[in-house]
Each structure stands twice: as structure tokens, then as C-alpha cells.
Design brief:
Helix content: over 70%
Membrane topology: Multi-pass membrane protein
Keywords: Cell membrane, Membrane, Transmembrane, Transmembrane helix, Transport
Number of helices: 19
Order of helices and strands: HHHHHHHHHHHHHHHHHHH
Shape: globular
Organism: Streptomyces siderophoricus
Subcellular location: Cell membrane
Protein name: MFS transporter
């Protein structure tokens, strides 16, 4: 029952962005404020990333259950307010509230599993969580489109309320964890510095190459500010009694390696999830709904492999092989995806995506398992939140950097095929075009744009493969540390043990 409640909470965290993304055109049509559209996503992402490590530390200090319930309530309040928003400014503010709650959902789920289930048994449960992620990725766009078409865009937010109420009721009733009361003070200075540093990094990846040039004063200034904030954060964390992110956890070699691998997994996963639908719609002619369904080979492979890896880890206690194989499959999957062009069939691209999905399935939950097994039980929350945070930041960097590579390649291809003036005009809006608008273009321009997108995705996956080699190499240096909770070998009983003791 507890695991079922945690799966609902995980679904809340994963489903929201998938549903809201589908509803955004309708939201802009009703509320206006097209120029602020990106902030609807950015406000949520910023709040989630900045609050993630703080939720983890609060759980370690004051008990997991109360902190987790608070994050669910905050998420639901943000959802209700977002559904009632009357203009774009209100929606952006309420999305930030929702993001603050979302930061505690993912961390809470993983940390509570870490409290309840020893690492040796945790693999199969985390495989189930990976299945929830896949269901959210597949069902989110479909649910979002259906709700928006039949009930209105506000139900993209209201749908969270009944799901959240069920999770709240079940967790309150069936989850029993020891209560904690720490006398230590919350590390407010460290929390503020970490929040400022993370905010600067996320804004760089959000604005760089779109709102501002990468070498503009704004982006460079944000970079300098972010680095200074993080340096100050490290200095503060070395002195406070109860740091929000204890630096000693990074002295564990496995933990440091697995955070690097998690960062790279986020980098390539979010990058591929961003550009695959664009390739399918522009080059292969799929509709928006069908492009979501065409991701099924990748998502199903991820779900099946994650369940398999979790069960085998539970039975054998071995996990390093899955990280190594997963890193190799991700590299191979990105490499074969880079071979796609305008003549690639949907069946072939589906096979390529399945290879990538299998690699992600081996890595996604196994990296979290290793992170949790590498920290002491008292640091379970910050260990889980750190792994989640690095994956989130990796995703932000992946979308931004791969997006810049994609845009430059599309622009250069269009200029090469249509000439400088026509090519610049076609790609001036960020190198992306509405598929409906594309269908109305003359055949020559449509063909040029399809080749440009194919070349852009080729570069994205090629660079993604090169980056993933780092994670594959790092996996070989992991040490196979026995998972806590495994069955110890039984020794022969001594003479005293063979004689029952008096009670």
C-alpha cells in the first residue's frame, strides 16, 4: 500500500510537465502573454531544482513523512492556484509554488523507499518507479490533449487534485516512520547560496542562445555570479554544524562517480526526448499525438529493462554490470540515432530508440540505488536529493547545449540550400516550425527544412554519443560494494548457541 501511494506521488511529479506542455498553446490563446511563455516552464523548473536539496535535508532532520506530506500539499495548492490563474503573470507565480512542492515529491519517494527497503531489496521497487516514469511520458501528452479538448486547459492542473488527495490519504494512513526532532538549526545561509547558484545555472541554460547570446553580458554575468555563489556555498558548508548538502558524502568514490553518471544520463535523456519528436513530426510526417506514440519503443524498453535489472539486483546483489552495460547501450543508441536521415523509416528509428531506451533502463534507477547505498542512513535524504539534482541540472544543460548545436546546424543547412536571405528568414524564429505551417510550404522549402532538421538531429545525437562515452568510462571505475540488507552467510553455531538461553 505504501509503494502504491509513492507511485501515485511519483506520477504526480512526472505527469505534470507532460500534460501542461500539450495545453500550452490553448493557455496562451486564452491568457495572452506569448512573450512570457517560456517562464511558465522556467519558473517550475527553477523552483524544483532549487528546492530539491533543501527538501532532502529537511527530511533527514525532521522526519521523512511530515516533510513529504508538506511537499504534496504545497504541490496541490500550486496546482489549484494555477488552474484558477487569470493572467500569465499569475500562472507563472503559481507554477513556481507548484515547482517548490514538486522538488520534494521525487526526493521524498526515493528517500522513503531508502528508509523502508534495504538496498539489496530496493532494485525491484525502483524498477516499478521507472515504469511509472515511462507511463507518464507516454500518457502525459495523450491525457493533456484529451483534457484540453473536452474539459478545458484548467483541468490540466485540476487533474492533480484527486490523485494528490488519494496519495495524501494513503500515506497518512499506512506510512509509519520514526519521528525525528533535530535541535540543529537549518542552514539558511547555505540554502540561500545553493539556491542562487542553481538558479543562475538554470537561467544560463534557459536563456543562453535564445533570449541572449551565449557571450552576452547577461549570460556571462550570470555565469560569474553562479560560480561565486557556489564557491561561497562550499566555504559555508565546511563550517556549519548541519550543512544543507554535507560535502563529506562526495568523499565516497562511488557516490561521486554516480553523480557524474547521473548528470550525463540527464544530459542525453532530456536532449533526446526533446529532439526526437521534432524529427518525427518534421522529417517523418507524424502528428503531435503520433510522435508521442512513436516514442513507445524507447519507453517500453526502458521500463522492461529497468524491471529486469531491479529484480536481478535483488536476487544477486550485483549492480556494476548494469551500469557498464547501460552506459555502453546509451552510447550505441545515440550513435545509431545519429545515422538517421530523411529516408529513415519509422520502424528503423524505433529499433534505434529501443537501444537507447534499454540503456536508460539499466541506468536510471541503478544510479539512484548506488547513491543511496554509498551514504549513511542519516544522509539518505541529501544523498537522494543530490542524485536527483545532478540529473535535473544535467537535463537543463543537455537541452540548452544540444539545442544550440541543433539550431546552428539547421540554420547553416537552410542557408546552404536556399541561400542566405531565404534561409535566415525561415530559421529566424529559433529553427523550429509548426508542422501545420510546414505542410503549407512549397515542396522545395519543405524538403530543405526536412533535410535541415535531419542534419540538426544528426549533430545532436552525435555529440550526445561523444558525451555519453564519459559516463561509460566512469562506470568501469565503480566498486561493487555489497548492498546493505543482503543475507549474510551463516556460520556454524557455537556450543553456547546450540543451548537455548533462559529467558
Amino acid at each position: 500500500m505504501v509503494v502504491f501511494a509513492l507511485m501515485i506521488a511519483m506520477l504526480l511529479a512526472m505527469l505534470d510537465n507532460m500534460i501542461v506542455g500539450t495545453a500550452m498553446p490553448t493557455i496562451v490563446g486564452e491568457l495572452g502573454g506569448l512573450e512570457h511563455l517560456s517562464w511558465v516552464v522556467t519558473a517550475y523548473t527553477l523552483a524544483t531544482a532549487a528546492s530539491t536539496p533543501i527538501w532532502g535535508k529537511l527530511g533527514d532532520m525532521y522526519g521523512r513523512k511530515g516533510v513529504f506530506l508538506t511537499s504534496i500539499v504545497l504541490f496541490l495548492v500550486g496546482s489549484a492556484l494555477s488552474g484558477m490563474a487569470q493572467d500569465m503573470g499569475q500562472l507563472i507565480g503559481f507554477r513556481a509554488v507548484q515547482g517548490l512542492g514538486a522538488g520534494g515529491l521525487m526526493v521524498g519517494v526515493m528517500a522513503i523507499l531508502g528508509d523502508l527497503v534495504p538496498p539489496r531489496e530496493r532494485g525491484k521497487y525502483q524498477g516499478m518507479m521507472a515504469g511509472v516514469m515511462a507511463v507518464a511520458m507516454i500518457g502525459g501528452p495523450l491525457v493533456g490533449g484529451t483534457l484540453t479538448d473536452h474539459l478545458g486547459w484548467r483541468w490540466s492542473f485540476y487533474i492533480n487534485l484527486p490523485l494528490g488527495a488519494i496519495a495524501l490519504a494513503m500515506i497518512t494512513a499506512v506510512l509509519h516512520l520514526p519521528k525525528k526532532r533535530s535541535k540543529a538549526r537549518i542552514d539558511y545561509v547555505g540554502s540561500a547560496l545553493l539556491t542562487l547558484g542553481i538558479t543562475a545555472l538554470v537561467l544560463i541554460t534557459t536563456w543562453g542562445g535564445t533570449e541572449y547570446d551565449w557571450l552576452s553580458t547577461q549570460i556571462v554575468g550570470l555565469g560569474v555570479f553562479g560560480v561565486l555563489a557556489l564557491i561561497a556555498f562550499v566555504l559555508v558548508e565546511r563550517k556549519v554544524a548541519e550543512p544543507v548538502l554535507p560535502l563529506h558524502i562526495f568523499r565516497n568514490g562511488n557516490f561521486s562517480l554516480v553523480t557524474v553518471i547521473g548528470f550525463l544520463v540527464g544530459f542525453v535523456m532530456f536532449g533526446s526526448m526533446t529532439f526526437l519528436p521534432l524529427f518525427q513530426q518534421t522529417v517523418q510526417g507524424a502528428s503531435a499525438t503520433n510522435s508521442g506514440l512513436l516514442l513507445l519503443p524507447m519507453l517500453l524498453a526502458m521500463m522492461v529493462v529497468s524491471l529486469f535489472a531491479g529484480r536481478v539486483t535483488t536476487q544477486t546483489g550485483k549492480y556494476k554490470v548494469f551500469v557498464v552495460v547501460g552506459g555502453g547501450l546509451i552510447t550505441a543508441g545515440l550513435a545509431v540515432l545519429s545515422l538517421m536521415d530523411t529516408g529513415t523509416s519509422r520502424f528503423t528509428s524505433g529499433l534505434y530508440m529501443a537501444v537507447l531506451g534499454a540503456g536508460m533502463g539499466f541506468l536510471m534507477q541503478t544510479t539512484m540505488l548506488i547513491a543511496q547505498n554509498s551514504v549513511e542512513l542519516k544522509d539518505m535524504g541529501v544523498g537522494s536529493s543530490s542524485a536527483t539534482l545532478f540529473r535535473t541540472i544535467g537535463g537543463s544543460f543537455g537541452v540548452a547545449i544540444l539545442g544550440a548545436i541543433f539550431t546552428n546546424q539547421v540554420q547553416s543547412t537552410m542557408v546552404e540550400r536556399l541561400g542566405k536571405a531565404a534561409g535566415a528568414k525561415m530559421t529566424g524564429g529559433g529553427a523550429q516550425m509548426d508542422p501545420k505551417r510546414m505542410a503549407q510550404l512549397p515542396p522545395m522549402i519543405k524538403d530543405a527544412y526536412a533535410h535541415a532538421v535531419a542534419n540538426g538531429t544528426h549533430q545532436v545525437f552525435l555529440w550526445g554519443a561523444l558525451v555519453s562515452i564519459i559516463g561509460f568510462a566512469a562506470a568501469w571505475f565503480l566498486k561493487e560494494v555489497p548492498l546493505r540488507g543482503g543475507a549474510a552467510p551463516k556460520a556454524a553455531p557455537s556450543a553456547e548457541e546450540r543451548v537455548p538461553a533462559a529467558v
